[in-house]
Amino acid sequence: MPDVFDYVIVGAGSAGSVLSARLAEAGQKVCVLEAGPRDLHPFIHIPAGFMYTLVNPRVNWMYESEPSEGTNGRRVHAPRGKTLGGSSSINGHIYNRGQRSDFDGWAQMGNRGWGYSDILPYFRRTERRIGDGDDTFRGRDGGLTITDIDWRDPLCEAFIEGAVGLGIPRNPDYNGASQEGVGYFQRAILNGRRVSAARGFLHPAAKQTGNLDIRTNAHSTKILFEGSKAIGVEYSKGGRGGTQLQVRASKEVVLCGGTVNSPQLLQLSGVGAEDLLKARGIEVQHSLKGVGENLRDHYPARLVGEVNVKTVNQRVRGLSVVYEALKYAATRKGILGLSPTLVHCFWKSNDALDAGDLQLTFTPASYKEGVQSKLDDFPGVTVAAWQQRPESLGYVHARSADPFEKPELQPNYLKHEIDQQCIIGGVKLARRLLHTPELGRYVVREDKPGNQIQSDDEILDFARGIGTTAFHLMGTCRMGPVSDPTAVVDDQLRVHGLQALRVVDASVMPTMPSANTNASTLMIAEKAADMILGRQAPEAIML
Description:
The protein is an alpha/beta fold. It is built from 15 helices and 25 strands. A hairpin with a 5-residue loop joins β13 and β14.
C-alpha cells in the first residue's frame, strides 16, 4: 500500500521548501518529492560556487532553449536547480522584489488578493533583513537572511559615481519604497555562506517538527487522479530505471516543480492542450490549453570592457586563488564569498517612460562569450542590461510521454518589437555607463560589442548573438480567472477544473515582475500556505 500523507509536494525548490515548512509547522503530515540529491555539494554553499553549479548536472537540470531567430539560431542554456533548495541553491543570491505596479497589475487581471498592499506582508514574512531599511517594507524575522555586500572595489565605486553623473540617483534600498536608482545589491548570504530556501526553511522545519518526509532522488512521473481529484503522485526512486513507487495525499497534491517541471508533469499526467497531448501519445485527463504557455524570461546582453587594473579574472588564477581559498576558509570573506554581480542600476530605456523598464548590473569580472562559468583571460568588467517586463511569449512542451526526456523549451527571446527596442536602449545605456569619466579612466577598450557596432540594427544583432538567460523563467501555469482561456490556476492557485491540485511556484506568475524571480517565488509560497491552511490573510499594508 502507498504511504499516505496530508499533502504531497512535488519539488523541494524555493517554493516547495517554504510551503513544506509552513504546512509542517502547522501540524500537517507532508511528503516532499525532490528529483535531485540532498544539498550536500560544497559548491552550493560557497557563494562563488555558482560558477560550477551552473554547469554541474549533479545539481542542475541542464536545460537549454530551442534555437530561435531572437538568438540568431543559438540554443541558450537554462539552468534549473535539481537539489534541495532548487534554483535558490545554484542562483546568484540576489534578492530583488520588483516594483509595486507589477503586483497591482496581477490584481487588475482578476487575481484577488495579489495587489502590492496584499502581498507586501508576505514579502516581509519570508525575510530576515540584516541592515538598513524601512520596516514598513522589510522583514526582520523570516527564514531568508538578506545582507548587504560589504566588499568594495574601486571599479564598482566608479560605476556608481558615473551613473550618478548621468542623473541616476543612489538608492541604498531598492526593495523599499522605490526601486529606481543605483547601488549595491542585497543578497541571500550570511557569514560567507549561501542562504538557500532549503537552509532557511526546509531543514529547520524538518528538525523542529518531525512532520516532513523528504524523499530525494525521487523523480515524479505522473499525478494520480480519481475522476477529477488528484489523490497522489507516482515517482521513480533513482530516476530512469529506478523503482516505481506511489505516495498518496489525503488532502492535496501541490506542484512546486518550477516553471519547466510543473507544466511538464501536468502534461505527462494528461492535463494540457488536447492537440499537444494527443500528438505526444498522452491520454487526455483534463483539457487545459494554457499549460506550458506564457513562458517568459529575462534576456541580458552583456557588455565587456578591458581595464587597466586587476579584476576578479586575475584574482582567481594561480597563486591568487590559493590565497583567496585560504582567506575564505579562515574568514568567510574575499572573492569566494561574492555574488556573480555586485551593483544594480534600475532605470529607463527611454526618458519618456513613467517608470523604469531596465535592470542593469555591474561586476568587476568578465566571462567568455557571456557564459558565467568561464572568466576572460584579460582584466575585464561587465555591464549587463535586460528588459524587466518582456512581452515575448514562449512555451514549455513535453517532447513525448517519456517523463525522463527533457521538455521542449522555447522562450522566443526578443520576438516582440517592444523587447527589441528596449534591449537596444539598454545596450546604449550600458555603453554610456561603461564610458563615463569616472569608470572610463580605467577602461582600455570596449571588448564587446566593440566600437564598430553603432547602429540600432547592429546593436540588436549583437544582442541576438550574445544574449543569455538571466535564469528567471516564469509564467507557464499562469494565474487568472476561469474566464481567461490561457489561465491554469485561479487566485487560490488551484488548477482550473480539477480538485485537490495546486501549483505553487514561479510558473503561476501571470506577468514578469521587474526583478529577479526568487524573492517573489518565496512570497507566493508564503501566501499559498495561508490559503491551503485556511488562515486569514494578514492585513494589507496600505501605502
